[in-house]
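quick one, 530 residues, struct below
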Amino acid sequence: MTISRRNLFKTGIAVGAAFSMPSVLRAQTTATEARTVRMVKVSVPSVFDPVVSTSQDTTDHAAAIYDTLFSLDSKFMPRPQMVGKWGASDDRKTFTFELRDGLSWHDGNPVIAADCVASIRRWAQIRPEGQFMMTRVKDISKKDDKTFTIALKEPLGLLPNFLANLLYVMREKDADKSASEAVATNIGSGPFKFNQAAARPGDSLTYDRNDKYVPRQEPVDGLAGGKIVKVDRVILENIRDAQTAVAALQAGEIDYYETPPADLFPVIESDPGLDLQVLYRYGQDFFLRINCLQKPFDNVKARQAVLHLVNQEAFLQVLSSDPKYTNTVTSFFGSGNLASNDENTGWFKKGGDPEKAKQLFMEAGYAGEKVVILQPTDWAEGNNTSQVLADALRKVGVNSELAPSDWGGLVARRSNKGPIEDGGWSIFITSDTDFARGEPMTSSHLALNGEKAWFGWPHSEEYEALRAKWTDVETVDERKALARKMQGVAWDYVPEVLLGQFTAPIARRKTLTGLIGMPDIVPLWNMEKA
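---
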């Protein structure tokens, strides 16, 4: 175990203070600390409203203090959570939902149907699946304090799936706010309460166990089942320096570190008190997004050239030196989804195919136009992979140039649809969970609807006609068959190119157990500290 001078000094003070404490108080302090979990995540949230922001730090916060109508189990099937009973009319156009007993807000008031109606309407203003749902909704209304209905103009079989996706129920008076105005009260009905008095914005946030929360009776299964809290308090610490965070983990100052860099894996693995754990085995799929509006990538052959050029193994080496945490990916829908398939994947070749890429750039009429790659210097994975991409393009004769900035600068610039000389761009690299890649109705970058599409603005009417059928097919086999057709079109069009999959492990003290492995959210319930 490594203890820094800073930690040793702190330990000396703590020992001195302990000897001066009454023994009963000392025992109480020890017991409290034993049931307190300290975590370092990617960042401490600065925006607390999961409608205004869907970043992971915000959704983790929301999952702790709010509850959901439905939740996804470990097989990504929707299961009732706040809902006790539900059903659909014979024509599948009217859904009725009844809340289960025991639901109450942190301020002591009961959760009622009007809260749910207001929350659904606000969520649907922002979320893509909610926006689609509202095109088929005739009315959302309460019947009584425990019951509400959703009346549809035409059937929508995926309605429970939609309601299970980042829809956190708020009090009616909070949910009545505009979707662009952040809710700041942090009063939910979930298993944890936000400790406003202990909050130190930008430094640490504290969550206390909600003694009044009534969990479901079913065993925990993914995000579904009983949300049983086994600790008294969770504190999110903001430690930006990786070496400092690992030292704190070794010294027992923190229990969990979400993003240890790959070069520190050996240090963690050599410590008998620590463990590396992959929570979601399919991890993140890295991909480069192509600007389809500007030269040279307004020509499909130039986009196909990049598809053949990419050597996934080279990109994966800079993501992690340990191959057990990386995988190649060939399906447009990732590798761990029901939608994953092998249609139209003949382009994949180990090591890439630079000669094929050269040929396709020639066929596209490439004439030396500058290709600008947005390079996020404050995101190590994006920074390093951007440099690998620029080098690969130069080797096949493409005039590639890196445009370095922090991630905030990249986000601002990627919305520019103009040419390079007017501050536009050609390519940027990002990532998404493998789970999200299998959800074409909820993942914005899986839409190819032109001006309405995500950054890069791909446009394929053939693909969009297929995607529109996604909500209407009823069986898994039908959805798989539809995914094959969509992938066939997508890999001919090439709106983006996959770089590989990285299953980044978290680091934890071995005394912290019971962590739930699901994409996008790290739940605070079910974990316990020995």
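Residues 1-29 have pLDDT under 50 and may be disordered.
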